[in-house]
Amino acid sequence: MVRIFSIIILSLSILLFPPATLAVISNNSVPGDATYPLKRGLEDMIFAVASINPTTKAWFAAARSDRRFKELGVLITRGKKVGETLNELVEQTQIAADQISQVDDQSQKEKLVQQLSQSIQKYDQALQRFSPTTSSQPPASQPTITVTPLPQSQNPPKLTKPSSTAAPIPRPSLRPISTPTPAPPELVTQPPQPTVTPAPSQTVIPSIRPNTIPVPHRDEEDYRKKEKEIEEARKRLEEIKNRLEEKQRKQEEDHRDKQENQPKFQEYKKQPKPEKREDSEEVEVKKGNRRSKD
Description:
Elements: H1 2-16, H2 18-25, H3 36-50, H4 54-78, H5 83-101, H6 106-130, E1 145-149, E2 204-208, H7 220-270, H8 280-293
Antiparallel strand pairs: 1-2
Helix pairs in contact: 3-4, 4-5, 4-6, 5-6, 5-7, 6-7
């Protein structure tokens, strides 16, 4: 029952509040997703509403920088191109710095400057980790290994078993009475045939020959391009941070000087003005004019 009620509430919320539902769906989208244009459109609407107050406008501009940074991390994790998102991160951070400089409240302004400086430092540390020079290097070109077989003989020797020496077999001789005894036949021993030793089997000796033509990695160009883009973004963010802090430091010094000089100005205003003294000649001229009138 509770599950059915939850489904009904969810369905009604989708039907009655489509902007809120779409905002939730597109909140985690990144460049390239179908709902990303909707996310940017909602951001523009909220930024227009927040522009009524300079403080809220500056705060939301800094929040948009954080959103661009999160999108950048997702794209790097997915192995996507990040050049455009890096430029948007730097541009949005510059917009946030400009909006903060227009805040009149010094306490709020100082707080916003500190928050944005910390965010830029966080961006720089993360970009340093994301940089290909510190994450993963492309595989270097390896020398090619070629296998060179040994030269084969044209007529390989055949293996034959050694033959055994034939032993003499004595045969009995018959002595006829009437005939003379013949001489016994001479036993002929066959000379031993030479044995052929087996030749060793053919072995393959690999020889390492360095490749004279370097084979570039297929992702080496993207690797170098991403490294350059990240380093350029880090440099621009550091410049924004330094300019923002320097401007805030000068404004604080000017404000401090005004506060120090204000009591002196108040004391100067309280001092009595000196009376104007007239010369004796001017007094005599005025008296003569009065007498002539009388």
